[in-house]
Amino acid sequence: MREFLGMILGCLLTIGVVYLHDSLATSTVANGTTAASARQIVNWDVAAAEWGQVKENVHTTWLKLKANNG
Q1: For residues 1 and 48, what is the distance between their CA atoms, to the nearest angstrom?
Q2: 2-59 per-position pLDDT tens digit
Q3: Mean pLDDT in the chain?
Q4: How far does CA 37 lie from the centroid of its chain?
Q5: Is the Cβ–Cβ distance between 35 and 27 less than 8 Å?
Q6: Which residues of 25-44 are buried (b: 16+ CB within 10 A; e: fewer)?
Q7: Extents of the domains making up the chain
């Protein structure tokens, strides 16, 4: 159980550190090519869209499972 908790905590810590890094990184749009060395690691717009798709798929699957059991 501690192993599983450690994996979950490690994933959350990794995501948190990447988010912190990206929020402190300068934008390449704002500063042109001079900010190329401090680029963001994650494209958060794409990540948000993908997360929305995952939530929608889980919801659809849940509704299908409820319909089959009822």
Answers
A1: 30
A2: 999 999 999 999 999 998 888 887 655 655 555 556 677 888 889 899 999 999 999 9
A3: 85
A4: 22
A5: yes
A6: eeeeeeeeeeeeeeebeeee
A7: 1-39, 42-70
